[in-house]
Amino acid sequence: MTERSAEPWYPTAAYLYVLHLDAPALAWEYLRRHPDYRRDWLRRRREREAAHTWGLRLLEDPALDARDAHPAWFPDHHNVLQLYPDADPPPEARAFEFWRIPGHKHLIHDGKRLVLTARWPGWCVRLALAPGLVDGVAYLYAVRACDALCTSYHTITAELDKLTAVDARAPAAAARSRPTPAALLELHTLQALDATLTGASLREIAEGLFGAEAVAAGWYADGGLRSRVRRLVRRGQSLMRGGYRRLAQLD
Asked: Contacts by 59-64 with C-beta closer than 8 Å and gap 24+?
């Protein structure tokens, strides 16, 4: 009999980082587990065409989880802030200052422009920097024209609030409230998905997620625990096989 407790998916503590991921980062967690995506990464022939098939501008290494990966989604998620040089700035216009942006920064070129990801405890902001935007240049934020303009505006202002609410000297750690049910659902879904991909049975998955005692007490044919694990497995497979696009707002 396989000793599942020694496998990487078994300890729930390994998935705690999932509790603090936003929607684009969660989308990456599901996509990187897709066997066909991992195969495309290994081949990396006709990379740009293959990336677009998955909703990316460039292929990203599936070995990297969302803490270290920086997938460039195509098209951009709605929360990406678009920054452009101001062609006609007023005298009091604010200048772009790269090092005043809080958090740990990561820059990539996605084939069209620089994309900056800034992270600090519990938060993440993504900024697309147009060509010509350099330190000291007055800048402005762009809102893409659409039918739901008010929704786009509120999304952008929420991202801007993150930048204005945090001090540049953000602490290395921060106390947080209990995780939300939605965050716990994503944690359990990813853990169940990983277990399924290794061939674990529903009962083995349940023991990894909820403990052997809970399974011994509540595991029977039509029991709630068994149905819950079955739903988690189905949800994980659905998100991995295309549902991640909803999280990344690609559709």
From this structure: 60/28, 60/32, 62/31, 62/32, 62/33, 62/37, 62/38, 63/32, 64/32
Q: Which has the higher per-residue pLDDT, 55 or 174?
A: 55
- Please, are residues 160 and 166 in contact by the beta-carbon 8 Å criterion? no
Q: Are 88 and 98 in contact (CB under 8 A)?
A: no
Report the pLDDT value the prediction gives residue 160, as an integer from 0 to 100. 87
| 28: Cα within 13 Å, side-chain hemisphere | 24
Check whether 166 has a pLDDT greater than 80: no
How far apart are alpha carbons 101 and 167 in whole angstroms? 9
CA nearest to 117, candidates 61, 156, 79: 79
Long-range contacts of the stretch 144-147 (C-beta < 8 A, 24+): 144/82
